[in-house]
Amino acid sequence: MAHEILKKLPEDVIIYILLSLPVKSLMRFKCIFKTWYILIRSSTFINVHLNCSKTAKEEFIILKRSLQEDPFQHKTTLSFLFGDDLKPVSPDLDVPYLASTFANNYDQFIGPCHGLIALVNMVNTILFNPATRNYRLLPPCPSDVPQGFRCSVDGVGFGFDSMANDYKVVRISKVYNDPPYRDPYSREQKVEVYDMSTDFWRELENIDQDMPRIYWAPCSMVFYKSACYWLAIGSKDKMIILYFDMGTEIFNTINMPDTCNSYNGPHYGLVVLRDSITMLRYPNPNPEYDPAQDLMQIWIMKEYGLYDSWMKIYTIRPLLIESPLLIWKDYVMLCESREGSLISYDLKLDKIQEFNLQGCSTSLRAICYTESMIQIPCESKDSAQVQFF
């Protein structure tokens, strides 16, 4: 009966209905008709579905954390959380290829970009669509380091190049003497880019060796409007924002507010809020610093690239946190506590809530995610194939 009704509906009505459905339903409906299967898998449908207006109710939080399985083994786990009480909407996922003998405190959790996220550790990069549960292990970056030297990865970015219609991963690293005290000034910065379309890593030439140093923090990198942004340390130890345009593959910088550019003392984070680059300044979590003496500040850049448009939108009482993770719904700030658990702070109500979600200290990361049907590219027959959790 239902099939007969569906057959009588005009094609444009069926397409309109399908575009309004969540990804989980679309995955099931592919099996009803062959024509629906072809339609739902088409790049046109996927791109239109991606750009359809989404409501805040469709957003959920993906929490990444490192959990200790035994004294010599740690795993990386993803939790999928929804609603103000951050209840799990599906079972946790243990991420393959990211298990380690030590806590994964320096894993990067980047995205989303068109519904795709990247999980990166010291060796592996995994591209993952949480909605379809598809993932792919990207080829390792070639380690072309001379004997007697070591390579240290300082920053990683992932995003989309709209000019080339291609996804890219960018890796910023330093090559230095091993051990480094032999000549601490003998260091070379290198930048490598992975193109999904070619399944190949390449090193960029003519990199400025005076380029600012990447500042590592749990939320110190974002992808925003075709560029990757990192917090960085410039000349005279001043904090700045370094960004890399995915299309032109050129680096540039943005100055931070004068009252928030000191490298010594406070810590910093970087998020996107109200569709603008936003900087978080928070007390240093090290025990020798007294957080009661330092307020937390949130600054938003109202006009992109204009230094004079920085505006402080929140000044927050001292919070005993390890680091902020993201700002959700414009007013809920998720943070990692000093004990390694997830907490939220309501910027409007000045209210703290703690959740029963813990991980190894400094290992928590979080992103706000909206579902997408975007498929993970796999152009080369020799590349690792897309797999399913």
UniProtKB/TrEMBL annotation:
Domain F-box, residue spans: 3-48
Name under which the protein is recorded: F-box domain-containing protein
InterPro entries the UniProt entry points to: F-box-assoc_dom_typ1, F-box-assoc_interact_dom, F-box-like_dom_sf, F-box_dom, SCF_F-box_component
